[in-house]
Amino acid sequence: MVIKTKADYVKSLREQKHVVYYKGKRVEDVTTHPGFIPHINAAAKTYELALQPEHEDLMTAVSHLTGERINRFTHIHQNREDLIKKVQMMRLISHETGSCFQRCVGFDALNALYSTTAEIDEKYGTNYHQRLIEYVKYVQKSNIMVVGGMTDTKGDRSKSPSKQSDPDQFLHVVERRKDGIVVTGAKVHQTGAINSHEIVVMPTVALGEEDRDYAVAFASPLNAPGVVLIFGRQTNEERKFEKGIDIGNLEFGLVGGEALIIFDKVFVPWDRVFMCGEYDFAQMFVERFAALHRQNYGGCKGGLSDILVGACGVVSEYQGTGKASHIKDKLAEMMHLAETIYCCSVACSAMGHKMKAGNYEPDTLLANATKS
Q1: Could you tell me whether strands 20-22 and 227-231 are parallel, antiparallel, or unpaired per DSSP bridges?
Q2: Domains of the chain, residue spans
Q3: Could you tell me the pTM of the whole model?
């Protein structure tokens, strides 16, 4: 199925039949559950805006792999202009949703893997990069939503993955077969997972030789046997089930929905595996992913800040304090902060650099400054 519209997106989630739990009960249809509807609506905006001619330049791109026009959330950055448009796109969507639209982590994971797999292949003679290219083509054609699986449960932070008393505190390979690998573990705080189609799993920390089984990156459908999603409760969670002004952001929710994703001996075919044992590339990958993800904040958080500034301005008018100097000073300070973080995102994009694989990634120092 090729997803183009909100209706396509909702239908695809309804047909997915992945194993989802909310407050201890299995949810058969995530598209009709009040706990998930706002997050689905927010993510759907990434599809809806891409169909509007006035937003085509920001919301879509031309694939360097196929020459087809694609949703920008499936694109591999080809130049600094792509990096800047990514930031502009996120600010645009934030203005529409006032909430997290949840496609960023998977987007960043694919771009970080694009450069890293090429360099793993260069050193070890593997074929991870070509596998990733074929997977990216599939994602671009189908326009599915991919969640990025970065954070493990971690356990004792003072110990490496292989030194944990429970080996499943970090997701790892438990079996290597001729046709693929079997993995066990979990990923936590996965924003947008409930309403995504697939997950791209990544290592989360620098690893040593003894952690070889934890150096794994792969893609898996979220309805694969052994994958279970448990939705995390949120602030004011029960308000989703009510009606009226106290709910807050009625249509799009306050934040993106997060989930714990359990992998219980999940099989992954080799053509979906992009790292398996190359522990010396884990730190490189994490640093590249972090830069790409921190680049986003001036776009999405800058856009959310714009909404907060506007809301505070309206409140001050209702209160009759809009002309008070201390109110105007605070609003000006808020605007200054919003534009500063946006400038940081644009700057790290404008100072982006070309990788060995041919794609572009943002300046790491400036991307870190954006998040700070």
Answers
A1: parallel
A2: 6-297, 298-371
A3: 0.96
